[in-house]
Amino acid sequence: MLNHYLNQIVPGDCLTLFKQISDNSIDVTFADPPFNLKKKYHRTKDSLEVQDYLNWCEAWITEMVRVTKPTGSILLHNIPKWLTYYTAVLNQRAHFKHWIAWDAPSSPMGKTLQPSHYGILFYAKEGKQQKFYEVRYPHKRCRKCHYLQKDYGGKKAGLHPFGPLVSDVWTDIHRVKHNKYRDEHPCQLPLHLLERVILMTTDEGDIVLDPFTGTGTTALAAKRLGRNFIGFELDEQYVQIAEKKLTQEEPNSKLGNLWVSWFLNEIVTIRDQDWEVLQQYYLIPDDLKKIDRVPIVPKDGKRKVYTPRTDMETKDMFSVFCQSV
Question: In percent, how much of the chain has pLDDT > 90?
């Protein structure tokens, strides 16, 4: 049945569909479930009694752990309120690795602290066996003068030319706010958020399963990065949107022969182990202290060539540049 579902968005209830997936067969499971905040989905009831919601969550979380390989990862995205309950379920079934704080501020709610992050729980199925790769993101710079925003003092000579290693606080990825970039879905995640998760936890050809696929962000990220995917989605309208977008994507989010994540003409995530090869495509100052005021640039002085999409942010590639270097 796994091969029947591979690289498909399967319509139906995830608890029913999970029964068709064998134990220890998926490399990474990622879930972004309804938040039980009365949001307007087409078919999903996002307003359950608290205990009913938590019982439902425990059922699909248990299934996520069951189908994940011993070397695999389980990741759950939600607001902190529900994640605190999720940990009680996961701590009995898997191994805690990180609580990733994704900096995504929302409107002040009054009489409380302003919500300023979503959380992504990051668990390993079997502790030290977990497949994991360190990833880097570009240095943060002033938009006008291009100087580094962080003061590294006397350690500038030791700066990595591309950027720092990613920590468990992600401040460089922002919510999809503009309607022209959004699908008809109330909780659409940025594509490069999922690409970062996938680059951290999988290899080419691995399988990523999302039980709440929505309009296909996880599947799109997986396909762009040469991974296999399985998506479950209750709403047939969302299934149709996801399938249409998938027909427009190819597994070619690369620089040279290495998988990378693009956003708005820039590479935003690379694997640390790939830099030794990727650096050949950049002009890097001989004196690394200059990195604080001189960003590295592609050798031909150009950014990538890309194909705009009307239903996505952009189709991020560097294919023409890579072929010319």
Answer: 63
Q: What is the pLDDT of residues 99-132, one digit of tens each?
A: 999 987 666 666 777 778 899 999 999 988 999 9
User: Where are the domains positioned within the chain?
Assistant: 2-247
How many CB atoms within 10 Å of residue 270? 23
Yes or no: domain 2-247 corresponds to CATH 3.40.1160.10: no
Helix axes 191-201, 217-224, angle to 10 degrees: 60
Instruction: Please report the DSSP string for 52-120 in residue order.
Output: HHHHHHHHHHHHHHHHEEEEEEEEEEE-HHHHHHHHHHHTTTSEEEEEEEEE------SSSPPP-EEEE
- Please list, residue by residue across 94-107, b when 16 or more beta carbons sit within 10 angstroms of its beta carbon and e when fewer do: beebebbbbebeee
In the beta sheet, which residues pair with residue 122?
Answer: 75, 98
Residues 299-308: what's their mean pLDDT?
48
* pLDDT at residue 324 in the model: 34
Residue 276 CB partners (closer than 8 Å, separation 6+): none
Query: DSSP string of 227-293?
Result: -EEEEEES-HHHHHHHHHHHTT--S--EETTEE-EEETTEEEEEEGGGHHHHGGGEE--SSGGGGGT
Over residues 242-257, the mean pLDDT reads: 94
Report residue 40's pLDDT band, with 50, 70 and 90 as the boundaries.
low
